[in-house]
Amino acid sequence: MPTVSAFSSTNYLSANDGATERRSSFTTSFTSLGVPAGATINGFKFTIRASKASEEHTFNSDGPLLFKVQKGSGDSATLSSAFGSNDSLTAVGTDFGDITLGSSSQLFGTTWDSATANAIQLIYDSSFDDTPEEFSLTFESAQCEVTYTLSGNGLIKLTSGFLKLKTGKITL
Known about the structure:
mainly beta, Jelly Rolls, 5-stranded antiparallel β-sheet, 1 helix, 2% helix, elongated
């Protein structure tokens, strides 16, 4: 199944470039995913590069590192239930580690089309559970990967431009 991926459109989350920000919450979108129109969405996988402030905190699907995804905006927005990361975060201080959220088959309890998949938002807020007051993490990047299935019968429809065939044959 094909995939597309993009870093967050939020400046400090847009690349693994050393730019970081300490946060207790964020909402970010992924505006350059490019899921093709008509595709069937199979799942979302997020990779977050982060660091915790202290060794005393452990994070996994039972701990305080919870996220939500949002489909749409305003009054028509659909917000998922809170979900935990697939990995533990062991990085502390100026060390950063990657954690994954979701998978190639995770839809977070909602249905998606290409338009809503291209506008997905990831939300982190320490208030999603019993996180200690004033808790924050340092984030470097957030990346979204969308797995999808192409629609149609596999035919190519070229409405303008050129098609260059390197191997195989074209049957008209």
